[in-house]
Write a structure and sequence with these properties.
With 434 residues, the protein is of the alpha/beta class. The protein has helices at residues 15-19, 26-36, 51-62, 82-90, 98-110, 162-178, 197-203, 235-250, 266-277, 291-297, 315-322, 326-332, 337-351, 400-418; strands at 8-13, 41-47, 67-71, 94-96, 124-126, 130-132, 141-148, 151-158, 184-192, 214-220, 223-232, 258-261, 281-285, 306-311, 355-361, 376-383, 386-393, 430-433. The chain is elongated, with a radius of gyration of 27 Å.
Length: 434
């Protein structure tokens, strides 16, 4: 019977990680996968291609945990030393694995490339180890379980390229580790808008003291997220435990700010709601410069609801394409509730949509005034016979990209509120009859 894993650490090997040549996405990927298996991760470490430093990192990790996941350093060159160094720690020799060798040879034949002899190094496997044959590259993955110093230690070695690591994990490593897990963690995410992380933390202070399920807030641009995670022996029980807490939170005053559960972001929630209601959408953008349309069209299946949009950066475009009146622009300026309202109504009218959205503002870094500083953005929703406009006062310390992102996220939240799917109050709005 496989030994159960108490806790794990991750060691990513490669000097290129330390030089910043490659962003280490593997650590985040593996951490997330281990969390879902109910395996706690104590540390993530990056080590260069140096055997002595790698030896020290291995000994340090195993002083705290019984399992280490390695990625990188399994290639054919002399500086690929992960397998050799880990084998030395376990006191294991290396043996040629015939199937791995055959696969490597076939790989090079398939891609019509000459195979240099050093590639056979990738088929050398620690004696007695489990081999995860690689259908997506050359270097196989490896699983080791041995007694070291009177304690059972485990290691999983994976190739570094994510294009190989991800499918190898899904197909072979995850089932291997699932047999060694004591349980499973199921998480559900509560998505909130219109309230800050500190306020969420204060409201959830008592609930966040719980060890199982756990509740943790996270801050994103223009919104917050609460992750509710439960640990249990099986998925059904963990899911039941976490969903009970989600339902409890939905019934509190925090429920007024919830726009979705496990929906990832505001645009996905909005597209799903519009699809369910069989409604269509059009957008008109100034300061966001196409970001609204981009985020909406990032959602698979958005063609069911999204008709199109306009980027009207200058006043002439606002007048010609959206029908914004010259009087409105002269009297109130392009950055105003009135202009935002006419833009949203104009986009909806031009494309015959059920709902129109618009943004106009000052994203910076220049262009602000005392009355309308950088970060001033008006977002509008045209729906039925009204246009709802909110003035956003985004911190001028935010970058241009951040201001645009926050404006888009806030508008998706306002749209959900207008549709009646967000209990947060529709106060602090300017409402126009159109």
């Amino acid at each position: 019977m496989a030994e159960k894993i108490r806790a794990a650490e991750i060691i990513c090997v490669g000097t290129e990680l330390l030089l910043g040549d490659i962003v280490n996405t593997n650590a985040a990927y593996i951490s997330g996968k281990l969390a879902k298996l109910g395996i706690p991760v104590y540390r993530e470490t990056s080590v260069g291609d140096n055997p002595e430093r790698l030896k020290a990192a291995i000994a340090d990790a195993y002083s705290r945990v019984d399992t280490v996941i390695f990625c990188g350093g399994l290639g054919p060159t002399d500086d690929d030393l992960t397998k050799e160094t880990v084998s030395e720690y376990f006191g294991l020799g290396l043996e040629l694995n015939a199937e791995a060798e055959e696969r490597i040879v076939k790989f090079f034949e398939t891609v019509c490339r000459h195979m240099t002899v050093n590639n056979i190094k990738q088929a050398m496997i620690p004696s007695g180890a489990t081999v995860f044959q690689n259908d997506f590259g050359t270097a196989p993955g490896i699983g080791i379980e041995r007694t070291v110093g009177g304690e059972i230690k485990q290691a999983v070695l994976l190739p570094g390229p994510p294009s190989e690591l991800h499918p190898l994990w899904e197909s072979k490593v995850e089932p291997y580790l699932a047999e060694r897990s004591n349980g499973i963690i199921v998480s559900h995410n509560i998505h909130l808008i219109g309230i800050g992380e500190s306020a969420v933390g204060e409201m959830m202070k008592e609930r966040m003291k719980s060890d199982n399920p756990t509740v943790a807030p996270y801050c994103n641009e223009g919104e917050c997220r609460l992750r509710v995670s439960a640990f249990a022996p099986d998925y059904a029980k963990a899911d039941e435990m976490s969903r009970a807490v989600v339902d409890e939170i939905k019934s509190t005053e925090l429920g007024d700010y919830i726009y979705g559960i496990d929906c990832e972001n505001g645009e996905k929630a909005l597209v799903a709601e519009l699809r369910a209601e069989k409604l269509t959408l059009a957008v008109a953008e100034s300061c966001t410069g196409g970001l609204l349309a981009k985020r909406i069209t990032d959602v698979p299946g958005c063609s069911d609801v999204f008709l199109g949009g306009f980027v009207t950066y200058c006043n002439d475009a606002k007048m010609k394409l959206l029908g914004v009146s010259a009087d409105t622009l002269d009297k109130f300026d392009a950055v105003s509730a009135e202009t935002a309202a006419e833009m949203a109504a104009g986009a909806r009218r031009a494309l015959g949509a059920d709902m129109g959205l618009s943004t106009t503002g000052i994203a910076g870094p220049g262009g602000g005034t005392a009355e309308k500083p950088v970060g001033t953005v008006f977002v509008a929703v045209s729906y039925k016979d009204k246009v709802y406009v909110r003035r956003l006062r985004i911190s001028p310390t935010k970058t241009r990209e951040q201001i645009r992102s926050i404006a888009a996220t806030s508008l998706f939240g306002l749209s959900m509120a207008v549709l009646g799917k967000l209990r947060a109050s529709l106060q602090d709005l300017t409402v126009f009859n159109m």
